[in-house]
Design a protein that fits this description.
The protein has 81 residues and is mainly β. It has one domain. The protein contains 1 helix and 5 strands, in the order βββββα. The chain has a 5-stranded antiparallel beta sheet. The relative contact order is 0.13. This is Phosphomannomutase.
Length: 81
Amino acid sequence: MFSIEHEFDATVVTLVDEGEPHLQEDVIVSSFEECVTVEQYDPRTDRVNKITLSMTQMRDLAAAISLPEGVYTRQEPDEEE
């Protein structure tokens, strides 16, 4: 299950792990104009872990999800010949 909320400066997607007993904590993805953050609570340390991706890194990640193993360089649309 997931939810999408549009806030003043970000779009926030919350991913809820539904299923068998070994569930992970919710993942919160916040998309800002200049970056994307991914947060998840870690009950072992009682802390929220946060990763910040630039928009370039986020586009690379989105492209990488459907590609086979390898090393790639993604060109921006205005860089294509």
